[in-house]
Amino acid sequence: MTKIYLLTIPVIIGIVTGMSMVYFPENQDSKLLTVQKLIHNGSPIMGDPNAPITILEWGDYQCTFCYKFHQNTLDIIYEEYIKTGKVKLVFKDFPLNGSDSFLAAEAAYCADDQEKYWEYHDELYNNWGGERTGWITRESLDKFAQTVNLDLDEFNKCLNEKKYQNKVITLHEFGKEVGIDATPSFLVFNDNKIIKIRGNQPLEVFLKTFAEL
């Protein structure tokens, strides 16, 4: 199994804006930080599965800065790096904002049962209504499902049975195990190195990270 080798030197950049890019610390459990374990159990891969660089995004559908990343920086990364086969992206849920965030995450995986994960994921962020404001309800989730042409009976059966509740809980716990404590957070890696980016950082931070891998 391919291991991701860990570096020990922290790098802090852009102090004025509070951005940070750090190499993972030496005391992090390397058994958790294999390419396979980092990708396993997350979203479908966006982009070429053989792309040399992976972005693992940890997000919450109610998170303000996750929404801003999705609406701005991700579009450029997608056009310039994901579509061209240089980078792939995997999303894992880190629901910090309570039960509504868990429910939205479960709904996205129910959509994945109908091969509409990314369409539903995008629909959630496109309809973002703030943090803990009550915009995520069974009614709104059904509306989003209809917008992306899901079979509504199948979708609601999945939610009613809580088919993906344990999956989302497991992802949240795994995130905490590997040092995730805020959203969005990103682990950007290849077979040899892993770099953590914390927060919704400017595009330049991601470009600098790609150049270092």
TrEMBL record:
The keyword Zinc-finger does not apply. Residues 24-213 form the Thioredoxin domain. InterPro entries: Thioredoxin-like_fold (IPR012336), Thioredoxin-like_sf (IPR036249), Thioredoxin_domain (IPR013766). Gene3D superfamilies: Glutaredoxin (3.40.30.10). One of its GO terms (molecular function) is oxidoreductase activity. Pfam families: Thioredoxin_4. The chain crosses the membrane at residues 6-24. SUPFAM superfamilies: Thioredoxin-like (SSF52833). Keywords: Disulfide bond, Membrane, Oxidoreductase, Redox-active center, Signal, Transmembrane, Transmembrane helix. The keyword Membrane applies. Belongs to the thioredoxin family. DsbA subfamily. This is Thioredoxin domain-containing protein. It comes from Nitrosopumilus zosterae. The lineage of its organism: Archaea, Nitrososphaerota, Nitrososphaeria, Nitrosopumilales, Nitrosopumilaceae.
